[in-house]
């Protein structure tokens, strides 16, 4: 089979993982990216790749660099590189798709995707009271900035304290629990077992931040070191972004890789990449327990790659929270008894704010090289299951070059939505809910409610007894009364 000379191939992967308790000796984010890039170039076995890069694509992190790609380009002498910065709310898969499409179209021959963060360094500096400084860069603009088209949440939601990702994902979690008919206790057991399995995979990942398996009971039950964050999630259900990690991917065209003499045994082929970029707030989704974007974008990625999910040997389902993994598995028809990650997930492998997919693709490439002829699927999320992305990878040469599809319009047509309004006084019915904590105690109940006219709203209650009851009894489907200031109480008003 003759490959199109413009077929993109992943030729080098690198990961930087540091844990330095002295913040004065820890690396800043751009330096971590540079370490990862040097490792990726060494992995490709070809010096000079970085200097010859046509583009450098970076997802935004906690850092304040205005154009980190230019810092990297200057370090390696890549004066001709075009820089791209993707802001929060843009799929990391978008950067991978952009790199592969640019090569497949002949616009570029060498493309770099890299990112990372140093949140552990920041944490240690705050604890020590030690000022930290990054390389100053505020007045340099990237050649291209990718931005989301809308906000990730509504003020109707945030006015009730829904501000952090865990709170939104527990809303989704409650809707899935109710739809499947699971009791609260059985559901808590399931997500604890799911995460315990993730920790076992992390134990075998040389790049993972936490490499000790954790028992399901230790994850499930709150403790002093594992407090409840938003019911039913404890701290250990949450992504660990207090890490100093970076990853880097180097793509070439087949023609360039051959001209440089990069061994084909190192090549990993991106088979297909898809995106669903429709933006809907969590509370607007009529069926919060489903995700049409996963079904449609995932199905299209498999179709374009000529695969079925049963013939994909290695998976890495986006793992910011258990709800994400379960939704991907449900919509793709994957059993929760399969190995669902190659990294160990964002809690145990580490989840640098906006770079996990670059980390997981780097690890997937290593896994595929160790299992020649196999296929890997890496999924991506932006926001609160707001956008979904898919990438299929293999060491086997594809029958045709990289295939890309943006299925946003199709997903928009398939997504049933409810109008989200400020709560009017009167009766409503709970569609999903979470409980927020103050220390070890349930402190606030927040519910997404269906109104008699078909609209949606968000209501909350500071009644600690009601909040506690919602952690032991199922409240979805119950009728509540909404009073002044969108305050929720049991029983409809007459």
Short description:
This protein has 15 helices and 18 strands. It is α/β, with parallel strands linked by helices.
Account of the protein in words:
By secondary structure, the chain is an alpha/beta fold. It has 2 domains: 8-151 and 240-414, 3-Layer(aba) Sandwich (Peroxisomal Thiolase, Chain A, domain 1), CATH 3.40.47.10; 426-490, OB fold (Dihydrolipoamide Acetyltransferase, E2P) (Beta Barrel). It is 31% helix and 23% strand. Strand 11 and strand 12 (387-394) form a beta hairpin. Helix 6 crosses helix 11, helix 10 (292-305) crosses helix 11 and helix 10 (292-305) packs across helix 14 (408-414). It is globular and about 75 Å long. 57% of the residues are buried. The mean pLDDT is 96.
Residues in β-strands, percent? 15-25%
User: Going across the major beta sheet, what is the strand order?
Assistant: 1-8-4-2-3-5
Report the major sheet: 6 strands, mixed
Q: List segments where confidence is low: pLDDT < 50 over at least 5 consecutive residues.
A: none
The number of helices is 15
The CATH superfamily of the largest domain is: Thiolase/Chalcone synthase
What is the overall pLDDT average? 96
**Which fold name is given in CATH as the topology of the largest domain?**
Peroxisomal Thiolase, Chain A, domain 1
Number of strands: 18
Helix/strand-derived category reads: alpha/beta
């Amino acid at each position: 089979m003759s490959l199109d000379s413009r077929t993109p191939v992943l030729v080098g992967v690198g990961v930087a993982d540091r844990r330095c308790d002295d913040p004065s000796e820890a690396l800043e984010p751009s330096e971590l990216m540079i370490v990862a890039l040097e490792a990726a170039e060494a992995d490709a076995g070809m010096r000079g790749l970085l200097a010859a890069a046509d583009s450098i694509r970076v997802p935004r992190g906690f850092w304040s660099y205005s154009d980190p790609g230019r810092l990297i380009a200057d370090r390696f002498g890549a004066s001709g590189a075009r820089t791209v910065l993707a802001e929060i709310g843009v799929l990391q898969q978008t950067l991978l798709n952009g790199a592969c499409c640019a090569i497949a179209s002949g616009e570029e021959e060498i493309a770099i995707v890299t990112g990372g963060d140093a949140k552990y360094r920041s944490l240690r500096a705050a604890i020590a009271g030690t000022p930290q400084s990054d390389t100053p860069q505020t007045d340099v603009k990237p050649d291209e900035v990718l931005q989301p088209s809308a906000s990730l949440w509504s003020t109707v939601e945030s006015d009730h304290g829904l501000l952090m990702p865990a709170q939104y994902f527990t809303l989704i979690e409650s809707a899935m629990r109710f739809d499947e008919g699971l009791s609260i206790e059985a559901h808590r057991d399931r997500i604890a077992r799911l995460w315990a399995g993730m920790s076992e995979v992390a134990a075998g990942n040389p790049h993972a931040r936490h490499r000790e398996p954790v028992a399901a009971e230790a994850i499930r039950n709150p403790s002093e070191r594992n407090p409840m964050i938003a019911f039913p999630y404890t701290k250990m259900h949450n992504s660990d972004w207090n890490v100093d990690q970076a990853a880097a991917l180097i793509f070439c065209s087949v023609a360039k890789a051959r001209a440089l003499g990069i061994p084909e045994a190192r090549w990993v082929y991106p088979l297909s990449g898809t995106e669903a970029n429709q933006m809907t707030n969590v509370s607007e989704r009529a069926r919060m327990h489903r995700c049409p974007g996963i079904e449609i974008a995932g199905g299209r990625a498999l179709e374009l790659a000529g695969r079925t999910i049963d013939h994909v040997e290695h998976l890495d389902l986006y793992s910011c929270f258990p709800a994400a993994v379960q939704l991907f598995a449900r919509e793709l028809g994957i059993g929760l008894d399969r190995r669902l990650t190659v990294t160990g997930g964002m809690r145990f492998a580490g989840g640098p704010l906006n770079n996990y997919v670059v980390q997981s693709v780097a690890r997937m490439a290593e896994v595929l090289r160790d299992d020649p002829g196999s296929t890997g699927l890496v999924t991506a999320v932006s926001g609160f299951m707001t956008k979904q992305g898919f990438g299929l990878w293999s060491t086997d040469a594809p029958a045709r070059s990289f295939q890309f599809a943006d299925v946003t319009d199709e997903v928009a047509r398939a997504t049933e939505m409810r109008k989200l309004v400020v709560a009017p006084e009167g009766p409503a019915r709970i569609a999903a809910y979470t409980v927020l904590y103050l220390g070890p105690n349930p402190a606030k109940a927040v519910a997404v409610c269906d109104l008699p006219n078909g609209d949606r709203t968000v209501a909350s209650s500071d009644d600690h007894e009601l909040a506690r009851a919602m952690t032991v009894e199922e409240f979805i489907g119950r009728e509540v009364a909404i009073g002044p200031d969108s305050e929720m109480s049991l029983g409809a008003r007459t």
